[in-house]
Amino acid sequence: MYARAAVTTAALLGAGALVLPTATATAQTSSTRTPAAQSAVRHDRPLVVAHRGASAYAPENTLAAIDKARDMGFRWVENDVQRTRDGELVIMHDDTLKRTTNVEELFPDRAPWKVADFTAAEIAKLDAGSWFSPKYAGERVPTLEQYMRRVSHNHQKLVFEFKKPELYPGIEKEGLRVLRDTGWLDKHHVKSKLVIQSFSADSVKTVHKLRPDVKTGFLGTPAVADLPAYAKFADQINSTHTSISADYVSAIHALKGPHGKPLEIFTWTVNDAPNAVRAAGFGVDGIITNTPDVVREALRED
Asked: Is 153 one of the catalytic residues?
């Protein structure tokens, strides 16, 4: 996930939309909790979500990373979805292949190595593990279908992110088709095992329009005054942990999302114990982390 939305609220919410301010301008940063915020804090521990799998311990967005999360006892994982030149959906965070594969070595004349410039067959040849550790040499970039089948096999749950959907028109419909074909849009999965999120409000709105039963999340920190507009199509407001406060979390929880339930917040990316305890104290519903074991232990000790 990137630390800012790729497009403005005005462009995404349509007529009458409000401009999306920066996180620092919209969320109270004081850790002092008002009485109102204290009463709104939820006392059940937040869910711990393994960001791109257990990405501190295995190469991000690979099958090895979600297997590692499973082996560590974590049921929730998060991923990023992009599209190849020939229309295959693959699991990759960056819109280029350079950082997490050996694409530069195999295809030296194809700079800047954009995901959208390579076919699925070409991407399938890449080593997506050696950059992280020799232990993971030969790990591949999974297709979305391969990934979903592994998540199912592992009995895991998923925070699914459409990454930079503005680069891939129609990706929401295509992603939902893969989810349907792999059994992830039945009542059981939709009820308790799936959240679809994006930094693009347009993308979240599209998912909500196509499948209004699916739980959705908007990545960002909108102004409190703007939250009711997002609550029309998003069940979650998923903000970076450095941009939130107890009062901001309380303002989220005070609203109801499109399914008539209180709006939620999964905060990211929390990789140390003090910030995990801090976020949990604000009353967040989930913590997305590269180090899920660190967060789990911190919450146990809190």
From this structure: no
